[in-house]
Design a protein that fits this description.
5 helices, two-stranded antiparallel sheet, alpha+beta, Transferase(Phosphotransferase), domain 1, two-stranded antiparallel ribbon
Length: 132
């Protein structure tokens, strides 16, 4: 996952957001995790994006609904979306549930999903990802 984190850092350093980070957009090739499907990549003020609801940070679903109701084409995206989704991906990998994204975006509920045998450093990484 280090390679995925480095890719996200590169994307962020270039003022972009991946916006659709999820298990399905990560492949392993020669023992290296790589991002795929860059169709959803967006800049700070994008008019559309590809995203998966289960990987959105809390409050973003409401923002999306508000945008749809007001028929606004502008929604400010943040690299924090990618960081949050990275935390969700890490939780799924730690639990061995790659195909079951959580249905709840409540931080406390998600933290309870982290296996108790998770190394302290990895737990700290996931906790920092879920700081929104």
């Amino acid at each position: 996952m280090l390679h995925v984190a480095c890719a996200l850092q590169f994307i962020d350093e270039n003022s972009m957001c991946f916006l659709d980070l999820k298990i399905g957009n990560i492949v392993i090739h020669d023992k290296v995790a790589k991002l795929i499907d860059f169709a959803g990549i967006g800049y700070e003020h994008a008019t559309c994006a590809s995203y998966t609801l289960e990987y959105l940070p809390p409050g973003m679903f409401t923002s999306l609904l508000t945008r749809l109701e007001s028929q606004s084409n502008i929604l400010v995206y943040s690299s924090q979306w990618d960081v949050w989704a990275f935390g969700i991906v890490m939780i799924l990998l730690l639990r061995g549930e790659e195909n079951k994204p959580p249905s709840d975006s409540d931080r406390d509920v998600l933290l309870a999903l982290i296996p108790t045998n998770t190394p302290k450093e990895v737990r700290k990484l996931v906790l920092s990802c879920l700081e929104v």
